Amino acid sequence: MNRIFWAADSTVQTNKITTYPQTGIGQVFSLYVRDDITIVNHAKNGRSTKSFMDEGRLQKISEQIGAGDYLFIQFGHNDEKSEDPTRYTEPFSAFMENLEIYIEVARKHGAYPVLITPLERRCFVDDKHLGIGAHSDYVAAMKQTAEKCNVPLVDLYSMSRCELKKAGELASRKWYMYFPEGEYKNYPEGKTDNTHLRYDGAVLYAGLIAKGLEELGGHYKDLLIDEAAEVE
């Protein structure tokens, strides 16, 4: 039985009732994979490539992962927080070096590493147009790492920006933990959380990752359900 391990942040984590209705991509990814694939989600809110390792979370994965498994690596949101030295990594040095450590953990156990660029925030500058966001250097650094280390990459960043542009500011609100004044008073982030996902957004972006795996082909595509067979 193959397993998919996730090393990632809050956009991927499995949530409890305390953060409801927040939903992570890893929480719903089983919707897209075969029944014999197990999801092992180590993603955690607020972590960067640095803090994830410093807290021993990558070490736990190293102790569990084995030959034929997959390590999905998705970071960037928190690596870019320059005001926090416990999380910040410079994109074209420490961030890339850390990604190589994650890749090596997978490979030394005979597992397959997959780099996944961070999804875009709802960084609209008006009703229809997205701003440049804050991920671009980290996306470029991850792509350079993928090329250097010959690791497959799923470009969730570009795909999520495309979906946001098509939907526009108003329609995309339902994908994120965005709550207008008075709609959800108890949510701690307030009314303008444009990073964390609700169920619809998690399912949408998980589907984009599945699309990326399908495009990679081979054993990556084989992780996914046969949608035609499921309908029959």
Structural class estimated from helices and strands:
alpha/beta
**First and last CA, distance:** 25 Å
Strand content: 5-15%
Give the low-confidence spans: none
- The Rg value, from CA coordinates, equals 17 Å
Helix content: 40-55%
Model description:
The chain is an alpha/beta fold. The protein has 9 helices and 7 strands. The protein has helices at 25-28, 49-54, 57-64, 91-108, 136-149, 156-171, 199-216, 218-221, 227-231, and strands at residues 3-8, 38-41, 70-74, 112-116, 153-154, 176-178, 192-197. The protein has a 5-stranded parallel sheet with strand order 2-1-3-4-5, sandwiched between helices. Strands 6-7 form a two-stranded antiparallel sheet. The longest helix has 18 residues, at 91-108. The two termini are 25 Å apart.
Salient structural properties:
7 strands, 232 residues, alpha/beta, five-stranded parallel beta sheet, two-stranded antiparallel sheet
Question: What's the quick description here?
Answer:
By secondary structure, the protein is α/β, with parallel strands linked by helices.
